[in-house]
Amino acid sequence: MKPPAFDYIAAHSLEEALAALQEGGDDAKPIAGGQSLVPALNMRLVRPTLLVDLNRAGLDTIEANSAIEETGVIRIGATVRQAALEHDPRTHPLLREALPHVGHFVTRNRGTVGGSVAHADGAAEIPLCLAALGGTVVVEGPRGRREIAPADFFVTHYLTTLAPGELVVATTWPSPAPDEGVAFEELSLRAGDYGLAMVAVALRRVEDVARDVRVWVGAVTDRPTALADVEHAVEGVSLTGASAHEAGLLAAAAVDPPGSIHASGAYLRHLTGTLVERALLRAWEQAA
Amino acid sequence: MAEMDTASVPWTVASGNYSSRFSGVAVGAVQAAALKLRAKIDAIRAHAGDEGLSLRRVAGMAHWNPEGLPAGEVPGLAAVAFWAPPTLDPPDTDDRVASSAAHGFIVDICAVEVDRETGRVSVLDYITVHDAGRLLNPLLADGQVLGGFAHGVAAALYERHVYDEEGNLMTASLVDYLAPTAPDIPALRIGHISSTSPVTALGAKGIGEGNTMSAPVCIANAVADAIGRDDVELPLTPPRVWELLHDGGPA
Q1: Are B181 and A191 inside 8 Å of each other by CB?
Q2: Nearest to residue A82, comparing CAs of A69, A95, A64, A71?
Q3: Minimum-distance CB partner of B239 among A192, A263, A274
Q4: Interface contact B247, partner A, CB < 8 A
Q5: ipTM confidence
Q6: CA separation for the pair B26, B36 (Å, rounded)
Q7: Are the beta carbons of A261 and B162 separated by less than 8 Å?
Q8: What is the pTM of this model?
Q9: How many Å lie between the alpha carbon of A190 and the closest alpha carbon of chain B?
C-alpha cells in the first residue's frame, strides 16, 4: 500500500524541528531512519498529516570529548545510525554485542538510535541496553530540556512519557566500569526477527564476587524490565554454574509472558531463565 | 524451441515442469531436431561445393535463395523433431501415466546439534550427493540443488500454516509465516556421481527440487536421533523441539 497524504518539512536545525512539531500538534510525527514508521505508514496503521524530517537537523553526532569523558558518559545523537555504532570503538561493549540483533544489516544502515528509543517496541534491543546500563534519554521540547531515566521513559509497547511537542535528541551511555563484564543474549526464530526473549547483563567482578549486578529482560515484558530478585541473589556472590542456574530459575519465575502461535508461555519463561543463566556466566567470565 | 502454452496447444504432461522432464525428455527432442538441422546444413554446404561455407552464408542461402538449395530441401533453417524414451508410455484408458523417463538418486547425510535448553537445532554439516546422470550444465545443476535445499530446510525448521479454532489462517503474513532468509540456511556440501541413463538421449536424469524432498527427512531423522524420540513433527522450531524434550517433565 501507499501511505496517506502528508505534508513534509525537512528541518535544518533542532529549533526548526521543534517549531514544526509544535505547529503540527498531535498530527505531526518526526521521521529519521523510517525503518518502523514507513512500514506503519504504508500499512496505514498511522496517519500523521505532517512528517518532520530530522536527518538534517544536526542530531547525528557522537560526543565523547574529554569534558564529557570526565563524567564517564558518551552522548549519542538521536539520528546516529545503528550501523555507525556497530563499528565505533566508543560504543559500549554491551550495545555492540546487541546491535547485530537489531533488524537486518540493511535496516541498520538507515535505522537510528533515537528512533529505536522513541518507538519503544518492547522487543527492541537498544532500549534494553540503555536501561541495563543506566543511561538516559535526552529530550527537548516546549518546556526545555529533560534528561530521563529509562525506567521513567518507557511505559509499555510503543508508549513513552514523551510529552506533546517533545523530541528525543540524544541518549547518554555510561562508559564501561572497571572490572565490568557484560553479555547480551537473544533467541529469535529467524535471523533479524524480533527476539522471543532477550537479556542484558552487566556486572563488576570485585575480589571475585559480583557487584553492581544488573539483569534486565525484554520481549517477554512490555518494556525493558529489571529482574530485582535475580540481581539481589547474585550480588556479592561468586558465580558458578550452580549459582547461575539458580539465578536463571529465579528469572524464569519472575516473568509471565503470554504465549503465541510460535511459543507457549512456559517455553518463554524457561527460555528467559536459560538466557539469564548464560548471560550471567559470560559476563562473569568476561570480567575476569 | 516453442514455449508450451495451453492457449495455443492442448495440455500435455510436457506442458509444465513435472517429473524432471526437461533433461530427460525435452532434451531428446532438442537433440533430434539439432541433428536434423546439422544434416541439412551439411547438405547445403555439399551442394554449394564448399564444406567450409560459413553458417551465416548457409543461413542466407536457406532463407533468401531457396532455388539454390539441394533438390527436395524446404526453405529456412528449422527442424521439427519428436522424441520419446522407451520407458515412457502414453496415458492408459484411466488417464494414468508414469511421467518419469529416468530417476535421479540422492543421498543426504547431516550432523545436527540440539540445544536442550532452548530447543534450537543447528545444522553443523550437511552433505548431499546426487546421481543425475550426465550433468548438462553443472552450474545450473548446483543451483537446483541449492534452491531445493533451501526449500527443504524451510520445511524442516521453519515454515508451517497455523489455523485457529474458527479456521482463520494465523500465519497469513511473512511476519508469522517463517520463510527463512539467506542467513538461516546452513552451508551445503554438494557432490555428484554421474552414471549415465541408458534410456535418455544424453544420459541425463532429473535433478530439479530433489533436496526439497530429502532435506526435511534427513534433518528430522538427525534430530530424532539426537533427542531420542521417533515422533518428531516438522517444522522443528525451537519451541516445538523444547516441547518434545520436556513433555512429561524436564529431560
Answers
A1: yes
A2: A95
A3: A263
A4: no
A5: 0.90
A6: 16
A7: yes
A8: 0.89
A9: 6
Residue-wise pLDDT tens for chain A (288 aa)?
A: 799 999 999 999 999 999 999 999 989 999 999 999 999 999 999 999 999 999 999 999 998 765 555 557 899 999 999 999 998 999 999 999 999 999 999 999 999 999 999 999 999 999 999 999 999 999 999 999 999 999 999 999 999 999 999 999 999 999 998 899 999 999 999 999 999 999 999 999 999 999 999 999 999 999 999 999 999 999 999 999 999 999 999 999 999 999 999 999 999 999 999 999 999 999 999 998
Instruction: Look up residue A190 and give its three cell numbers.
Output: 529467524
Q: Smallest CA–CA separation between A73 and chain B, in Å?
A: 35
All three cell numbers of A23, joined, read: 505547529
A192, A262, A274 ranked by CB distance to B237: nearest: A262
| B239–A192 CB contact, under 8 Å | no
Helix axes B27-48, B55-64, angle to 10 degrees: 90
Q: Residues 93..132 of B with a Cβ closer than 8 Å to A: which?
A: 117-120
β pairing state of A209-218 and A225-226: antiparallel
Chain A stretch 183-202, residues whose beta carbon is closer than 8 A to a beta carbon of chain B? 187, 189-193, 196
Alpha helices (runs of H) in A43-124, residue ranges in sequence order: 66-69, 82-86, 93-98, 105-110, 113-119
How wide is the angle at C-alpha A234 spanned by C-alphas A230 and A237, nearest 5°? 165
- Does A264 sit within 8 Å of B158, measured CB to CB? no
Measure the CA–CA gap between A154 and A117, rounded to whole angstroms: 9
Backbone angles phi, psi at A206, to 5 degrees: -115, 120
A&B contacts, CB < 8 Å: 44
Report the chain B residue with the minimal C-alpha distance to residue A187: B118
* B181–A187 C-beta distance less than 8 A: no
The secondary structure of residue B74, as a DSSP letter, is: P
Closest by CA to B100, choosing from B48, B153, B175, B24, is B24
Structure-block grid coordinates of residue A184: 547480551
Strand duo A144-148 + A136-141: pairing: antiparallel
